[in-house]
């Protein structure tokens, strides 16, 4: 399952918006309008199928990362880049919902539920292609390359995850590689695009990209912790969904090292999944996993120190980094 | 179902290769090697999942169109463009096989059969992204745009097809629009890419693109005729697969105009599908559909007359145009 929980509560979002300066809010609104234009301009089928996906979109963390990484720059190219990363993210969600046969996302019917496998597969493909079209319109080949690399990484991460499903042999290193591919490389692309098309420029793209990778890994680890820890009333989904579809995550990997009986576990229903979540928690694996995530956040912030960024940009990025591990804490 | 039958028999292929001049064969071999490199360079999962898809690849019609449309130019950018269109085509085949739950393609196990829905969805996404990465490496924004537009069209065509499944109201115009989106726009992109990156240049891109659209539509109509007409020993698949999955094609649309009882038809198994194929053929709808395809080929060739192309290029393109409607005839 993809990391889809919001990065932060409303207070944290407000803090980021305040820190980043007056440009951010109108830019996010422009990206939102651009997404709606794209959804409305490619056939009535896309319009219908994407409206729920757009509305269920959450906090637009990835567009926000593009804009904040751009310093206080403001341009149509940045709006296009922000729309592109969100289109790509939406495409993966639509395809994920097919794989998970998910009826709802954030309380709304998924494309899969509404239109079936074929419509959802094609809708995801269409969103992918529009992401590339948006970025191509900027005329920056480096930007298109960043998106292509992120897209490939996402798909490779998905392949790895299915390859590793139900495996007793998934190492921490393999898990972290999967987090990087499946989640963090798109965060990297967001920061890289902001740098390339914004004020920091190409010279800062690598460092900002590494910042993105680190917070992306932290984001995914925290998502995986929340899947075991809950609480359900805050995450909005039952505990142990990863256990049910065989996805081996860091909490389980750590717990298995301490409780070998967990190596044999195969859960068959939600009740069993809850019970295994409790056994994982009992080993202390959740605290360890949280520490790992915090370590990635610290390393992300370290990358910022070497960069010549404005005070607002630096503070807004640090707040986003903290936000990915403070969700529900 | 996508148009996947080869454009021509071995004799026609040889004629095209002879006409196009000595560059074509080595270029096709280079594109083939590039495809193998891409498949080998993005994780062991892609390597495994794509090897059968590559091997089942048929005649590489789309790369050939890129090269022929380039006149007698020869460059690494052209090889990348040819690999890109084939990667995109492969991506759609891999996704189509998920939707059709197809166990085999050209006698080899599909990614869907080998790895399941998730692996096939992710493999298709990875092939999509590598197509864009290949083209981005050429540094030509127009080329990337052509691919993005073709990809969007493909997905829109797929959405239309599912929307129209089992419908009694599909008009000829709607069917032709679907052929254009689902099949012809990628042919257009091939020709456009050849022009942009090859000898004809940007000035010839629109006319060569229109040539591509016309032969793409003819190709799809003929594919749909073959699905009704067979013979099975030449197409390699049972007759009436479109009827079984509710895809309304030109032969059925024409036949319904003449035999209203066909409006009510819903086939449930291969035997019923064969019987309905016979009823469609009895109305003369196959001859009419073939004529429609031939008309598109004629219009494609007309587009060539206004262009300043070398004699070899013109002849090779004309042979390809004839080839799309001479398959199995």
What can you see in these coordinates?
- 2 copies of one chain form a homodimer.
- Chain A is mostly helical and about 325 residues long.
- Chain A has a single domain, classed as Farnesyl Diphosphate Synthase (Orthogonal Bundle).
- Chain A is built from 15 helices and 2 strands.
- The first copy, chain A, has helices spanning about 10-20, 25-40, 45-55, 60-70, 75-100, 110-135, 140-165, 170-195, 205-230, 230-235, 240-245, 250-260, 270-280, 285-305, 310-325; strands at about 105, 110.
- A two-stranded antiparallel ribbon of chain A has the order 1-2.
- In chain A, a hairpin with a 2-residue loop joins strand 1 (about 105) and strand 2.
- The model of chain A is unreliable at about 1-5 (pLDDT under 50).
- At the A-B interface, helix 3, helix 5, helix 6 and helix 7 of A face helix 3, helix 5, helix 6 and helix 7 of B.
Considering the chains and any ligands shown, give keywords for the structure.
disordered N terminus, 329 residues, mainly alpha, 15 helices, two-stranded antiparallel ribbon, Farnesyl Diphosphate Synthase, homodimer
Task: Give the CA-CA distance, first to last residue of chain A.
Answer: 21 Å
CATH superfamily of chain A: Farnesyl Diphosphate Synthase
Order of helices and strands of chain A: HHHHHEEHHHHHHHHHH
Biggest β-sheet of chain A: count, sense, barrel?
A: 2 strands, antiparallel
């Amino acid at each position: 399952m993809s990391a889809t929980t919001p990065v932060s509560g409303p207070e944290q979002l407000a803090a980021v918006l305040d820190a980043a300066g007056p440009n951010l809010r109108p830019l996010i609104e422009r990206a939102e309008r651009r997404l709606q234009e794209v959804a409305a301009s490619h056939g009535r089928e896309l319009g219908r199928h994407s409206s729920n996906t757009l509305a269920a979109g959450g906090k637009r963390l990835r567009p926000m990362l593009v804009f904040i990484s751009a310093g206080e720059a403001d341009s149509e190219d940045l709006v296009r880049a922000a729309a592109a990363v969100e289109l790509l993210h939406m495409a993966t969600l639509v395809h994920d919902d097919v794989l998970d046969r998910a009826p709802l996302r954030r309380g709304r019917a998924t494309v899969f539920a509404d239109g079936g496998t074929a419509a959802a597969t094609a809708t995801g493909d269409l969103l992918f292609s529009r992401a590339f079209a948006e970025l191509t319109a900027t005329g920056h080949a480096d930007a298109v390359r960043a998106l292509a690399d992120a897209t490939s990484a996402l798909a490779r991460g998905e392949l790895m995850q299915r390859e590793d499903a139900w495996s007793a042999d998934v190492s921490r290193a393999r898990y972290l590689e999967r987090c990087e591919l499946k989640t963090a490389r798109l965060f990297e692309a967001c920061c890289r695009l902001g740098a390339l098309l914004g004020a920091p420029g190409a010279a800062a793209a690598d460092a900002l990209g590494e910042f993105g990778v680190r917070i992306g890994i932290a984001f995914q680890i925290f998502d995986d912790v929340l899947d075991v820890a809950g609480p359900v009333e805050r995450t909005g989904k039952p505990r142990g969904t990863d256990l049910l579809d065989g996805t081996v995550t860091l909490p389980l990997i750590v717990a298995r090292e301490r409780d070998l009986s967990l190596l044999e576990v195969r859960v068959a229903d939600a009740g069993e999944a809850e019970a295994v979540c409790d056994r994982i928690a009992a080993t202390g694996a959740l605290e360890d996993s949280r520490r790992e995530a915090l370590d990635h956040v610290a390393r992300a912030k370290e990358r910022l120190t070497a960069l010549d960024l404005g005070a607002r940009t630096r503070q807004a990025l640090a707040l986003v980094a903290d936000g990915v591990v403070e969700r529900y804490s």
